[in-house]
Amino acid sequence: MSKNNEIKLNNEIARYQRTIATQKRTIATQKRTIAAQKRTIAAQKERMAIEKKKVIEISEVVERTSILLSRVIELRDPYTKGHSEHVAEIVVNFVNLNSPLNFSKEKIPVIYRAALLHDIGKIGITEQVLNKPTKLTEAEFIMIKYHPILGYNLIKPLLFDELIRDAILYHHENFDGSGYPQGLKGDNIPLIARIFRIADYYDALTSSRPYREALKPDEALRIMKEQSNCFDPELFSFFIENIRYLTRRST
Length: 251
Ligand SMILES: [Fe+2]
Prior knowledge:
By secondary structure, this protein is mainly alpha-helical. It has helices at about 5-75, 85-95, 105-115, 125-130, 140-145, 145-155, 160-170, 190-205, 215-225, 235-245. The chain contains ten helices and no strands. The structure holds fe (ii) ion. The site of fe (ii) ion has 4 residues, from loops.
């Protein structure tokens, strides 16, 4: 090999060696970057696990608080003992069975909680009015009609899900606009409240009250059909067709 060619070859080798060294440094930098990213992801995963645990703990506390609050209402109004749980049973079965309503799985515990709390505003109504065995006066009825607003104002600071707020505030709205507190009509009433209206009505009729014995399911349904102006027609048809799957108090 000539002297010139030897110099060229050596230069070429030196250039390759520099390129390889540069690539090695790049790869080392990339490895460090990947390792740093892995550490960041691991830290994020850890934070998410902690957050998830906190959410679960908070949900459990909210759940137990909801049950406690519903028990408090029942203490003041023994005639509605079990009412919140019965309504919960109906509405949860209703949304589970009526798939076109398209409530997500995550909303089921929220709906259950809404049922436990829907009459929370009764805490603000006197026991004399709640447990009165005779017909209510106009003034007393106005007090009763105030319980959805009282309940809504009570739970508002807790920033509960909108479903819970709607169920509490609107569960006495009638489909034809004759309900309370706002006299909303038709689809202006939130869907969840239209379902609650049916479940609440049915359970009220099939429960003992200060002024009457519990009605048999057939009799309750007959009365509800007479009062069908209160209910969303499609939801009410579904309720009638599927009542045996919605509540144990249907036979
Ligand atoms: Fe109510």
